[in-house]
């Protein structure tokens, strides 16, 4: 099964440049540079005149929402030196007229803070100005995994 394989090398002095792409349509009149510039100007004026969408102060990106997230980032898991938000324990934050509903989990159902952590979250979030009351819904499905962690948390724990 000894097959001889040969490699052939071809030497060239130069290579012709590839042809340039052209789009030609005989039925359409050629567009002048002035027409192209005017079309771009119209687009930019329309784009710049558009007003940004109003953000809901209670929705994602709103001031109250961000204040709640900041409060959650001040709560640390006692066994892992990372806040519960970056750890990926917070699944959802809903705000409706001052009422905050937080859906969260813990690293394991047998976590030693399973009884105290939801109460601490309610107290911290309830203390945010603008929050009337806070409620925590503790869930186990989907279960927490290290994939839920933010890149900051992974970096802090040496996992990146």
TrEMBL record:
InterPro entries per UniProt: Fe-S_Maturation_MIP18, FSCA_dom_sf, MIP18-like, SUF_FeS_clus_asmbl-assoc
Domain MIP18 family-like span(s) in chain numbering: 66-137
Organism superkingdom: Bacteria
Protein name (database record): FeS assembly SUF system protein
A Pfam entry, by short name: FeS_assembly_P
Compositionally biased tracts (Basic and acidic residues): 1-11
Sequence intervals crossing the membrane: none
Region called Disordered, residue ranges: 1-21
Native organism: Sphingopyxis panaciterrulae
